[in-house]
Write a structure and sequence with these properties.
The chain is α/β, with parallel strands linked by helices. The protein contains 10 helices and 13 strands. A hairpin with a 5-residue loop joins strand 12 and strand 13. Keywords: Methyltransferase, Transferase.
Length: 313
């Protein structure tokens, strides 16, 4: 029986333009590399969003909590929770009655987060969930009471447009009028800055992308030779997409043991591994309306690089 990853790879490598989902970047090594990316000088989104939450945390907390009563603060893709702690502190300071339910696909990231929270915010009620987004959305539906949902870090940018709308509609479906969503959107800006954020000088983003092949070698018994694969990325201002690829630097064959199959790669053929969409404020309002949501308030950093947007039904 094939597992999810094996099935995904079988489908993705049989396509005319080979593609693998960036969802599979985040094994333990990939999650650690992403932590490193967030500290890189070129990778501005994390700092920009941190500045928003640091300076405007109290105002955001006030928009997110219901007028009265307890609520669940569910965070999709919680990661190390560094930015969220700012919001959690603001909510605790405002004596909000809530449980924090972080959701992340990485068990190791979750263990680290729960340990850090119990040290730093001992008064916080934490109900961790190790799951992918689809499972988390089902859990959200089943949760009684008021909800505030966080989807920070421009994770929304990693969906392609159809999946993005579908996901937002699923997020909106279980929400009632008093519930709130806070979504982080990376905004369109100097294309050179955007591209540099995904092609850093130290090569950490390259290692992050290439780690996907290491994962396939380990988990699916593949024999990708990393010496003959390269990271390539580009930003398209017309679509607002950063597209990242793994490039086969020569004609080669790769055997994947778990699939019992060998795949041919031509010289310079690519595997498309990630989209990171960048938005305008007008696109965000339009997207919200298409998903049956309205923009309650937009919080931006001083440079206007990033927006944390409060949405409601
Ligand atoms: C997780 N996600 C929002 C990151 C992004 O910016 O698209 C993942 C990433 N990929 C390369 N660098 C960072």
């Amino acid at each position: 029986m094939l597992n999810d990853l094996a099935r995904h790879v079988a489908d993705g490598l049989r396509k005319p333009i080979k593609a693998l989902s960036s969802m599979y970047f985040y094994d333990d090594a990939g999650s650690r590399l992403f932590q490193q990316i967030m500290g890189l000088p070129e990778y501005y989104p994390t700092r920009a969003e941190f500045a928003i939450l640091e300076r405007q945390g109290a105002a955001i907390a006030a928009e997110m909590r219901p007028a009265a009563g307890p609520f669940t603060l569910l965070e999709l893709g919680a990661g190390d929770g560094l930015k969220t702690k700012l919001l959690l502190r603001a909510l605790l300071q405002g004596s909000a009655d809530f449980a924090y339910a972080p959701v992340d696909i990485s068990a190791s990231a979750m263990t680290g987060l729960v340990a850090a929270l119990s040290r730093e915010l001992p008064a916080l009620r934490v109900e961790p969930v190790v799951a992918d987004y689809a499972t988390a959305l089902r859990a959200l539906k089943d949760r009684p009471g008021s909800k505030a949902v966080l989807f920070l870090g421009s994770n929304i940018g990693n969906f392609d447009p159809a999946a993005r709308l579908d996901f937002l509609r699923q997020l909106a479906a279980p929400l009632s009028a008093a519930d709130r969503l806070l979504i982080g959107f990376d905004l369109q800006k100097d294309p050179r800055r955007i591209r540099a954020a995904y092609d850093d000088a130290q090569g950490v983003t390259a290692a992050f992308n290439l780690n996907l092949l290491t994962r396939l070698n380990r988990e699916l018994g593949a024999n990708f030779d990393l010496a003959h694969w390269q990271h390539y990325t580009d930003y398209e201002p017309l679509t607002g997409a950063v597209r990242s690829f793994l490039v086969s630097a020569r004609a080669q064959q790769v055997h994947i043991g778990a699939l019992n199959q060998t795949f041919d790669f031509a010289a310079w053929e690519v595997i498309h591994t990630e989209n990171s969409f960048k938005f305008t404020l007008a696109q965000i309002s339009e997207l919200a309306a298409q998903a049956g949501l309205r923009v309650v308030r937009v919080f931006q950093d001083e440079a206007g690089d990033f927006a944390d947007v409060v949405l409601a039904c």
